[in-house]
């Protein structure tokens, strides 16, 4: 009994300390994430059960935390960003050697106000994420992905065209050159989602992910397939749906692809990357609490399960306020920000397990070590690809695309009689 009351006392102490953060914008009643809130609020044995259901089991066990080198955690303390690391296990195989890779996700807020000159804003963001990339390098990360349009505020809510000045070409672009040097330094593949200016095609603007190989080479690019037309996400004012299909990039560390933000609501988009053999899909995003937070822990995880690959989901952090108020034709009063970008970046695995998420309000680096052999092991176990009826779906889709398509509905004749 004495032991139990000591625990309660300790727990309430922890609660008090955490609650000092209650007023922190974006915190969950003072906590950085739902996981942290539950861990601090529940009895350990209850939390263990909750965690089992919330995060699933990896190879039948709770996901293991990964120890990072002191050099990496020291950078995170000095630069004040959340850093978390986990290890997804995979069973050993007789024929194939393990294919273990470390993968990193970076989430961040902007660095200086949106009223300051744009080149200063871009430089300040580059300066801000440099220590996070250094921490990833110090942690032996092999593949790193940044958030959507990481090199600028997410200004597309405003519809003001001056923000196009942030756009840059893939080859020779300032941020690409910055990351190419870091990719080479750390022998790291870097996925860099930017606002692209396609000079050769009449200065067209795209929402693009640049894939930088671990030799600092540009491997290629992928342009966002699905453009949102929801809430303040007025992105269609700036760029069109991408024209690069569903490429998979075979890097030194595995086959990767990028499903940019709003594409995560489209199961066939996820599927197409899987059909091309992706083993890790990144979902660099920019989304706000009020709009999408209940979807966030579900969609990517579901895609990882349905397509037997790993997914790394990244969302930016904080509130970005713009100089001029705007509306979005939804009857809401004019406002100057999108709302709170809730961070919460995390990894999902093909076996239905996932990591807790990064902070809801602080910059962060999420690292996972994963053996890519798990993808095939899950395919062998569950057979989702084998049992899919692609020919049936293809036929249905080809009917649907015809102008004279009529939905295949069989109506109860009794219903018609009654009508
Ligand atoms: N950046 C972007 O596509 N956001 C759309 C909102 C959402 O998908 O949650």
Automatic annotation (TrEMBL):
<feature type="domain" description="CN hydrolase">
    <location>
        <begin position="101"/>
        <end position="372"/>
    </location>
</feature>
<comment type="pathway">
    <text>Amino-acid biosynthesis; beta-alanine biosynthesis.</text>
</comment>
<dbReference type="InterPro" id="IPR036526">
    <property type="entry name" value="C-N_Hydrolase_sf"/>
</dbReference>
<dbReference type="Pfam" id="PF00795">
    <property type="entry name" value="CN_hydrolase"/>
</dbReference>
<dbReference type="GO" id="GO:0033396">
    <property type="term" value="P:beta-alanine biosynthetic process via 3-ureidopropionate"/>
</dbReference>
<keyword id="KW-0378">Hydrolase</keyword>
<dbReference type="InterPro" id="IPR003010">
    <property type="entry name" value="C-N_Hydrolase"/>
</dbReference>
<dbReference type="GO" id="GO:0003837">
    <property type="term" value="F:beta-ureidopropionase activity"/>
</dbReference>
<dbReference type="InterPro" id="IPR050345">
    <property type="entry name" value="Aliph_Amidase/BUP"/>
</dbReference>
<protein>
    <recommendedName>
        <fullName>Beta-ureidopropionase</fullName>
        <ecNumber>3.5.1.6</ecNumber>
    </recommendedName>
</protein>
<comment type="similarity">
    <text>Belongs to the carbon-nitrogen hydrolase superfamily. BUP family.</text>
</comment>
């Amino acid at each position: 009994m004495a032991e139990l009351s000591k625990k309660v006392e300790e727990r309430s102490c922890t609660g008090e300390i955490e609650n000092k953060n209650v007023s922190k914008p974006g915190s969950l009643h003072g906590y950085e994430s739902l996981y942290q809130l539950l861990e601090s609020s529940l009895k350990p044995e209850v939390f263990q059960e909750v965690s089992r259901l919330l995060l699933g089991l990896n190879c039948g066990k709770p996901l293991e935390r990964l120890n990072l080198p002191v050099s990496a955690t020291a950078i995170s303390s000095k630069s004040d960003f959340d850093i978390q690391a986990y290890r997804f296990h995979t069973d050993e195989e007789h024929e194939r050697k393990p294919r273990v890779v470390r993968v990193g996700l970076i989430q961040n807020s902007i660095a200086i106000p949106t009223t300051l000159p744009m080149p200063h804003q871009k430089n300040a963001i580059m300066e801000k994420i440099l220590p996070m990339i250094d921490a990833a390098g110090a942690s032996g990360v092999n593949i790193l992905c940044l958030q959507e349009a990481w090199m600028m505020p997410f200004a597309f809510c405003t519809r003001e065209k001056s923000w196009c000045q942030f756009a840059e070409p893939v080859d020779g672009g300032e941020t690409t050159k910055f990351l190419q040097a870091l990719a080479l330094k750390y022998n790291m593949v870097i996925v860099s989602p930017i606002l692209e200016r396609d000079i050769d095609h009449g200065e067209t603007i795209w929402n693009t992910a640049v894939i930088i190989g671990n030799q600092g080479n540009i491997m290629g690019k992928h342009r966002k397939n699905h453009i949102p037309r929801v809430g303040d996400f007025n992105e269609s004012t700036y760029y069109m749906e991408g024209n690069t299909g569903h490429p998979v990039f075979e890097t030194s560390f595995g086959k990767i692809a990028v499903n940019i933000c709003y594409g995560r609501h489209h199961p066939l988009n996820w599927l197409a990357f899987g059909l091309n053999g992706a083993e890790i899909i990144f979902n660099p995003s920019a989304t706000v609490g009020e709009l999408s937070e209940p979807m966030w822990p579900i969609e990517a995880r579901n895609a990882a399960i349905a397509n037997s690959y790993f997914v790394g989901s990244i969302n930016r952090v904080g509130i970005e306020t713009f100089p001029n108020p705007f509306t979005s034709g939804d009857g809401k009063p004019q406002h100057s920000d999108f709302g709170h970008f809730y961070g919460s970046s995390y990894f999902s695995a093909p076996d239905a397990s996932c990591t807790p998420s990064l902070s809801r309000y602080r910059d962060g680096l999420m690292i996972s070590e994963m053996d890519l052999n798990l993808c095939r092991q899950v395919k062998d176990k569950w057979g989702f690809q084998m049992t899919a009826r692609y020919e049936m779906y293809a036929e249905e889709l080809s009917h649907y695309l015809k102008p004279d398509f009529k939905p295949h509905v069989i109506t109860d004749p009794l219903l018609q009689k009654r009508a």
